[in-house]
Amino acid sequence: MVEVPCLVDAGGARPLAVGRPDPAQLGLMLQIKHVEQLTIQAATKGDSGLAWEALSLHPLVGSTTIAKSLAESLTS
Question: Distance from CA of residue 35 to its chain's centroid?
Answer without folding.
Answer: 6
